[in-house]
Design goal:
about 140 residues; 8-stranded antiparallel β-barrel; globular
Length: about 140
């Protein structure tokens, strides 16, 4: 009788996990560049690079059976932040590449961010209110 209960419990837990995570994809990057959003004396807004670094950056992109989409960023194996998708917008062209444009909610500070991912998945740009992070392979 106990063996049946243990098997049933394992199946219920596995079923719950399977129902929540329906899709998962990992993307790896080796370069990270952080830029600050600045306003020039002429009144133009632009991004100025303030830090470049190399490392092991992973994006784990997940979609649940309920349709929730989120991704988690890992830097050198440590979870940095995760984001929940709010809205899918459109596509943008930057430097001859096509990027998907989506809005996410950054969970550390509840800030809405714009995320652009190239179709080839070799670049990701995350735009915060006052800065940008650019990941490359």
């Amino acid at each position: 009788m106990k063996k049946t209960n243990i098997c049933s419990t394992i199946l219920i837990i596995f079923g719950a996990l399977f129902n929540y995570i329906c899709y998962s994809q990992t993307y790896s990057y080796s370069q990270k560049e952080e830029s600050l959003r600045v306003k020039t004396l002429a009144g133009e807004t632009k991004y100025v690079s303030n830090k470049k670094q190399s490392g092991e950056y992973k994006f784990i992109h997940e979609k649940s059976s309920r349709g929730d989409v989120l991704f988690t960023i890992y830097e050198d194996g440590i979870e940095e932040q995760w984001y929940g998708r709010g809205q899918v917008f459109d596509y943008k062209e930057l430097n001859g590449k096509i990027f998907s444009h989506e809005r996410y909610l950054a969970t550390k500070d509840n800030e809405e961010v714009a995320v652009l991912m190239s179709q080839s998945k070799d670049e990701v740009l995350i735009f915060f209110s006052n800065r940008m992070i650019h990941y490359k392979r």
